[in-house]
UniProtKB/TrEMBL annotation:
This is Membrane protein. InterPro entries: MTH938-like_sf (IPR036748), NDUFAF3/AAMDC (IPR007523). It comes from the Bacteria. It holds the Pfam family DUF498. The lineage of its organism: Bacteria, Pseudomonadati, Pseudomonadota, Alphaproteobacteria, Hyphomicrobiales. SUPFAM superfamilies: MTH938-like (SSF64076). It comes from Aminobacter aminovorans (Chelatobacter heintzii).
Length: 128
């Protein structure tokens, strides 16, 4: 009997986020429970180790695509929190401007920038 294959959650394309809340997101006629990372290469399930203390390693996929991203929107949950210094420094070194905000504001801003075909990426922490 073959073992179960667990694949990383990934939507291979750019899509606006249609809804958020209840611990997840809806986009491209699909839903995802948990946080997501929206990159030029697609939308990925994303689980930072500690949403309150994001680290550069939480953004390895983003850094791999840094040349295609100018702006990173970070949906920090229900409340705005400052990005940790180490993460801000890593983003600056990669030439990426980061803008932390509440997840709701980040989703709305992401959808506008995506519609304008801007070089935008987003990291959204799920909210209930």
């Amino acid at each position: 009997m073959a073992g179960m294959i667990i694949r990383e959650a990934h939507f291979p394309g750019r899509a606006p986020v249609d809804a958020y809340g209840d611990g997840g997101f809806r986009f491209a006629d699909m839903s995802h429970r948990g946080s997501i990372l929206c990159l030029p290469s697609g939308i990925y399930g994303w689980q930072p180790a500690d949403a309150q203390a994001l680290q550069p390693s939480d953004f390895d996929k983003l850094f791999a695509e840094a040349g295609a991203v100018e702006i990173l929107l970070v949906g920090m949950g229900k409340e705005l929190r400052r990005l940790p210094e180490a993460l801000r420094a890593a983003l600056k070194a990669a030439g990426i401007s980061a803008d932390p905000m509440s997840t709701g504001a980040a989703v709305r801003t992401y959808n506008v920038l995506l519609a304008e075909d801007r070089a935008v990426a987003a990291a959204f922490i799920a909210v209930d």
